[in-house]
Task: inverse folding
């Protein structure tokens, strides 16, 4: 296994459009996390899954955001009706539930909303 | 309210010398502290962690020190190498979430 992968790496979209990102975690990991990072800030937690169950969502995750992990493997993050403030790097990470503090990150998807 | 603070946005260190990156936190419930390294256009890479019950953890050139009474931790890199030039994030875990600081950009000078 080569690590966490994310697709696409870059996405440019117009305001009001919907976008979907995909994350493939390290296969042995049962936890999957989504973070958002803006310029000059560290990653900010959005949500996480243990297997297919979404266990926590940040207040940063507005109603326009939805995440799924249908079979407990890959995950998707969808943003509906994108706004310019959604422009950011969206990072995915995975871990074992016995060591949730040791998370391994993917390269991220950079979203630009014009 | 920032629970994990990295007060130095950047740091320059001569190659071969020691790099010391500092971090302060406010939440005494954190159970693990971590350092991540990030190169441009890549995700953060896990470097080293320390449990809140310890005061030092060492891994090769990297050592993390934890001072619980001062709510302070530091990452020492010795000797510093050109490939260490990156942004370093201090982070802390309370249960299932990790909270990150804003990062310190380390420049290793030739």
Result:
């Amino acid at each position: 296994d080569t690590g966490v992968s994310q697709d696409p790496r870059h996405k440019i979209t117009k305001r009001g459009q919907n976008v979907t990102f995909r994350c493939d975690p390290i296969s042995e990991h049962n936890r999957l996390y989504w973070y958002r990072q803006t310029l000059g800030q560290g990653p900010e937690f959005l949500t996480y899954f243990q297997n297919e169950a979404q266990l926590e969502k940040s207040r940063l995750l507005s109603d326009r955001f939805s995440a799924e992990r249908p079979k407990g493997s890959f995950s998707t993050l969808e943003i509906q009706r994108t706004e310019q403030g959604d422009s950011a790097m969206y990072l995915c990470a995975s871990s074992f539930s016995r060591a949730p503090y040791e998370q391994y990150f993917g390269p991220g998807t950079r979203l630009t909303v014009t | 309210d920032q629970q994990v603070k990295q007060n130095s946005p950047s740091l320059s260190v001569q190659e071969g010398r020691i790099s010391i990156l500092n971090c302060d936190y406010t939440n005494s419930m954190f159970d693990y502290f971590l350092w991540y390294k990030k190169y441009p256009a890549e995700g953060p890479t896990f470097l080293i962690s320390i449990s809140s019950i310890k005061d030092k953890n060492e891994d090769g050139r990297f050592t993390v020190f934890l001072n619980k009474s001062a709510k302070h931790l530091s990452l020492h890199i010795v000797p510093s190498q050109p490939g260490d030039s990156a942004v370093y994030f201090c982070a802390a875990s309370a249960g299932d979430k990790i909270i990150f600081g804003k990062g310190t950009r380390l420049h290793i000078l030739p």
Remarks:
- The longest strand of chain B covers residues 86-94.
- The interface with chain A takes residues 4, 31-32, 34, 36, 41-46, 49, 89, 91, 93, 95-103 of chain B (CB under 8 Å).
- The mean pLDDT of chain B is 95.
- Chain B has no helices and eleven strands.
